[in-house]
């Protein structure tokens, strides 16, 4: 993975572009979140996804029942054992998502310049002139001239499978709309989005709470993706709910920014959340197309400076049905990496796409190529300047470890940690080499039984760019009383050698707490 980095600001030999990429143990520093569903739920397919670079498995509860997702999760666990690859589990809440209900499941053809009525009466059958929806308050939320978008599952951007409507009249609880483009809606459910309009529904719905308190609680999920996060209070409310559910008090909350309200409150949300997911499908409807890239760059930059993961969605939609992405999509993935994104989230591409493994592999290869021209030096200076002075003790040592690793051309940074915070701080400065995070479990008790922490922290770092966790033997302390106990370091070095990122005569930077002090060591390996 580690190679002499090129810079886009410098001339690049055209011949070097044609050189084939070398296979590596870690497909890319940028992580890939894959949504598991009908096309990607067998042990064999999930194992291949893990081998190809997926490090976080997303379970989308806006569709499917708990039994279906539980079976998929059991298959994931079997695949993890088979492939010997760690994988985090992300639960995506449904949130206040509006849907068109088509009980007959017959395709509905909508003709441009015709009228269609949206009604909250779900007992009525969906027709080209009448679409039942799952929300009775739409008529109170919209007015004449407002824009409504309807699409299947996710917004594809394809005008043959999604439709734009313009509100022409409100009649009681019904909303009359003018159809702006012809489209055919096929399937039982379609997502409905009202541009720049607040829907008076809770962000964490009763259905979400039931799923979290049963399925998520039983399976001890690592990350909660909070759909339609609109303000910091949404995150605080979700965290308070999780805190009452045993081990879920360790679950991280990633705020999913999907509308203008969430975008307007971005800074306060970022401060409260553990990470951010930029849901570009919905944002692309709320924002003019020419403004989407500006928000992406500004949001990712803020996440980078805060040291919190930024996840970008909707990058290779065409690979849902095709083996190769479009040129624009390939460039979009690379630009997300160059912007500083920690992870790429694949939705329909792996959920119901025909080529889930190939999609993950292709995205990983694009990320790896983009990382080769990432200007780490400029980014490092910007990050240090943003933090300002005086730095905290831990941040100072973490940034120094990255600078030392770059100066001595280290092949890897090894970080011993219990909470994962030190490794995340190192990753914040975007080192050009992998960070092997050795997570040392801590023994804790609730007065009834003893348990070890650490598994959550190890898996949660799988969504952070550049961090590759190892769960260590709990008998090894993270904060050694002396620096002579090298047995745990040997485990990390052996893992790095097996992975192919550490070779004889390489230099390795080690970050470790010794007593009350944090220590950075530079080790030169022998044969």
Features:
globular; 25 strands; Pyrv_Knase_insert_dom_sf; seven-stranded mixed β-sheet; single chain; eight-stranded parallel barrel; magnesium; 527 residues; 24% strand; alpha/beta; 18 helices
Walk me through this protein's architecture.
This protein is α/β, with parallel strands linked by helices and 527 residues long. An eight-stranded parallel barrel has the order 1-2-3-13-14-15-16-17, surrounded by seven helices. Strands 4-12-8-9-10-6-7 form a seven-stranded mixed beta sheet. Strands 18, 19, 22, 23, 24 and 25 form a six-stranded mixed beta sheet that branches. A hairpin with a 4-residue loop joins strand 20 and strand 21. Helix 2 (43-52) crosses helix 3, helix 2 runs parallel beside helix 13 and helix 6 runs parallel beside helix 8. The radius of gyration is 24 Å and the shape is globular. The model has no long low-confidence stretch (mean pLDDT 88).
Helix and strand topology:
Elements: H1 14-18, E1 31-35, H2 43-52, E2 54-60, H3 66-83, E3 88-92, E4 98-101, E5 108-110, E6 115-119, E7 130-132, H4 138-141, E8 147-152, E9 162-171, E10 174-179, E11 183-185, E12 189-194, H5 206-219, E13 223-226, H6 232-243, E14 252-257, H7 260-264, H8 266-272, E15 275-278, H9 280-286, H10 289-306, E16 310-313, H11 327-339, E17 343-346, H12 348-351, H13 356-372, H14 376-387, H15 393-407, E18 412-417, H16 421-428, E19 435-439, E20 442-445, E21 450-453, H17 455-460, E22 467-471, E23 479-480, H18 487-499, E24 507-514, E25 517-524
Parallel strand pairs: 1-2, 1-17, 2-3, 3-13, 6-7, 13-14, 14-15, 15-16, 16-17, 18-19, 18-24, 19-22, 23-24
Antiparallel strand pairs: 4-12, 5-11, 6-10, 8-9, 8-12, 9-10, 20-21, 24-25
Helix pairs in contact: 2-3, 2-13, 6-8, 8-10, 11-13, 15-16
InterPro entries: Pyr_Knase, Pyrv/PenolPyrv_kinase-like_dom, Pyrv_kinase-like_dom_sf, Pyrv_Knase-like_insert_dom_sf, Pyrv_Knase_brl, Pyrv_Knase_C, Pyrv_Knase_C_sf, Pyrv_Knase_insert_dom_sf
Pfam families: PK, PK_C
Keywords: ATP-binding, Glycolysis, Kinase, Magnesium, Metal-binding, Nucleotide-binding, Pyruvate, Transferase
